Amino acid sequence: MSFEHISRPMTRVIDKLTDAYCVRLLATMREHDFDVADLVEREDRPRLTIERCLQRAKEIEMRKKLRGAKTEAAE
């Protein structure tokens, strides 16, 4: 199966899995007081990949906070 032929629903699933991984990575970093270098070694991934993943997780957290604030304002 070529990557060019991945359907939209499959892309959404991949994005959700990536989001979950990134959020969990950020939680692990905070819980164990790791820095990026520790995560690079632990996850055996390139530093830039880890940094992008952590940034993605922080953006997800911000969106959740904004959604929560909008919900509270609507009530």
Can you characterise this structure?
It is a single chain. This protein is mainly α. It has one domain. Helix content is 81%, strand content 0%. The chain has helices at 8-32, 36-43, 47-74. α1 crosses α3 (47-74). The longest helix is centred in the last third of the chain and has 28 residues, at 47-74. The chain is flat, with a radius of gyration of 15 Å. 8% of the residues are buried. The model has no long low-confidence stretch (mean pLDDT 88).
Distance between the termini: 47 Å
Which term fits the overall shape? flat
How many domains in all? 1
Number of helices: 3
The proportion of strand residues reads under 5%
Helix content: over 70%
Query: Mind describing the biggest β-sheet?
Result: none
Radius of gyration: 15 Å
Question: Tally of extended strands?
Answer: 0
Low-confidence stretches: none
Structural class: mainly alpha
Mean pLDDT: 88
Secondary-structure element order, as H and E? HHH
Characteristic terms for this protein:
75 residues; 3 helices; flat
Show the helix and strand layout.
Blueprint: H1 8-32, H2 36-43, H3 47-74
